[in-house]
Amino acid sequence: MVGSQVQRKKPRVLCLHGFRTSGEILKKMIGKWPESVLGNFDFDFLDGPYPARGKSDVESIYDPPYYEWYQVNEMECVHFEECVEYLEDYMIKHGPFDGLLGFSQGGMLASVIPQLQIEGTAFTKVPKIKFVIIISGFALRDLKSGPPKLLANVYSVPIDCPSIHVIGEKDFLKERNFKLMKLFVNPFLIHHSVGHTVPKLDEEGLETMNKFIEKIREMFPQELQSGLGLKSAL
Fold first, then answer.
1. DSSP one-letter code for 159
2. How much is the pTM?
3. Separation between Cα atoms, residue 71 and residue 228, nearest integer Å
4. Are 80 and 150 in contact (CB under 8 A)?
5. Do the strands 12-16 and 67-68 form a parallel or antiparallel pair, or are they unpaired?
6. Where would I find the H helices in 66-104?
7. How far apart are CA 121 and CA 156, in angstroms?
8. DSSP 3-state assignment of 60?
9. CA nearest 114: which of 104, 124, 177, 105?
10. How far apart are CA 3 and CA 1, in angstroms?
11. CA neighbours within 13 Å on the CB side: how many for 154?
């Protein structure tokens, strides 16, 4: 009986890649993390809805294809609503998902989905997201035409969803990374020494990640205790 409980469930996490990369690339990037972290989750890596419309910054490192979630310039954010529809449709068909992991542009998306659910403006047909893991994620910058309609109020109140933020000291978006983190209630932080990437977890980073995993385990001990801590189930 105990054995079947151990095998039953890990928290399912939908993973959202960065601009002009892919789900497969993000899978390889977080592969730097130890199995003691990765083994706690059931990850699903999704590609963005739009093929890359320009050069990818990772062409010299990772093979194509590359994708985008939406397009943005100083004037406006394009195709954001379509991106939301694409994500919600995938979550309906392939969920339920307990959490989100997002890198860069995907981190921005992961950060707003819980708040859109609370507002009731999107993602209302899927279960509430319980936690987010945001790596080099940023708040959408101010645009001359204003934010997409769905995001008009999303940053106006604290985001009350358990979160961990992985931010690089040399990340060119560091200030926007911290700006996003400060919008969350009681966020966890892994502040590493490198740039806009998924870092290896040093001893301090691993300790912080383990504390976050423990917090998740406390949120739903009955259904997820097997996936997030075998000792409690044995």
1. B
2. 0.89
3. 36
4. yes
5. unpaired
6. 80-94
7. 15
8. coil
9. 124
10. 5
11. 24
Of 51 and 218, more confident: 51
pLDDT of residue 221: 60
Q: What is the mean pLDDT of residues 104-112?
A: 96
In Å, how far are 54, 91, 161 from 98, measured between CA atoms? 33, 11, 12
Query: Residue type at 209?
Result: M
Give me 94's structure tokens. 């392939």
Tokens of residue 199, six digits = 């870092």
**Closest by alpha carbon to 68, among 83, 81, 89, 57?**
83
Residue 59 and residue 19: Cα distance in Å, rounded? 12
Q: How far is CA 81 from CA 100, 147, 163, 208, 217, in A?
A: 19, 11, 24, 34, 33
| 220: DSSP letter | S
Does residue 142 register a pLDDT over 80?
A: no
pLDDT at 230 over 80: no
